[in-house]
Amino acid sequence: MAYGPLRAADSEKPNVIVFLADDVGYGDLGIHGNPHVKTPQIDAFAREAAELTNFRVNPVCSPTRASLMTGRYNFRTGVADVFGSAARMDPAEVTVAEVLKAAGYVTGIFGKWHLGDDVGSSPGAQGFDEVLSFEGAALKKYFDPELMHNGVKEKHTGYCLDIFTDAAIEFVKQNREKPFFVYLPSNLIHTPLQVPSELAAEYDALGLRDSTAKIYGMLRSVDNNFGKLRAVLKDLGLEKNTLLFFTSDNGPCSGSKPLDRFMAGLHGLKGTVYDNGIKVPCFARWPAGFSSPEKITRLTAHIDVMPTILDACGVAVPSGVKLDGISFLSLLRDPSATWLDRSLFFQWDSGQEPRRGQAFSVLTEKWKLVQPCGMDKPSQKHIRDTYTELCRLQGRGERSIEGPARYELYDIAADPGETKDLASAHPEIVEKMKKQYDVWFDDVAARWPETRQDKSP
Fold this sequence. Notes:
The chain is α/β, with parallel strands linked by helices. It is built from eleven helices and 16 strands.
């Protein structure tokens, strides 16, 4: 693979840090109106940063991570699910870490990889010089865990995110004289709900479910560690020339029983293609690169993060690499900059191969087509049941994500809560977006030839 030349002088190279929270929904932050949660460090950052208010990801973990790492739709990368071989990214994929490493960056990952554990798919084989991670989809023991450090299992003492953040901070200190790329994908607030008792105790008197109190306590750990990382950047004089992202991989998980969570008026949850599954917080700050605070209201997504980072670092996209995303650096510098109103696509229906027409959405800045059904596997019962109960609690009636395909159309710009289905009023838009989906699916799922047979109904 021929990597592009570095365009910026060494002295101009920004450091880059991507802090990725796990299962943190749009409404899980104080800055977005949550009346219970305490996230002062993230809220302070949000008030100083550029906020991408219209940012989307995939409905579940591995697919989002594949797109963040490659700038490509996850189906292209071989990632279709969160378990088994379908959560293993093709080793031939070129990651942002590989490109930055070739351009002179030192690279490190501290946290959840979830894109394959074998030699070819591991983070060490995908461009990371320093690796502190764990195998599989979830860390089972959050206190005193056994972790993989550069391919060797090691016992660690303490709480998981404290360990990951402290390791990232040490990496930054050791490499402060070089341009660095730090990927800090927290395993919080993903289940299991294991949290220091003093953090969860802050919420005991609020009358919340035990699961929600634990989730909000885990969020306190996310907030504390994010603040600790920022403080070190400032103390080391690195904050000005560090491009720092805070975002999440998807919305609230049904396994955490999010029935009394604040959801900022959004519909759905993790695993669904409604907006509470795919719209997440996203903030970026780089004092040397663009002015902030700003609100970026144009439609952006996970696939845009890698091209944005490369653009900011002055590094060309490697020849032969086809990116689906585009850099939003121009928007960070000027929210009124010219921007393409694209159609973006999101799908997950849990399986080792993608199925055409199952649980997908097509999104533009005005319209959103939703085909929510496809949750028909026994392993998805908890998602189906939680979704139905959530709809009842929100006064949305008896809704289900089971059954045959159905097509809903929302004016998402005017109706962010997806409350008024306009499909019957605009059948021509529904048909246009269904055709766009079929063209997209044929393209991105080409590596699975058997999935290309029938067009969506």
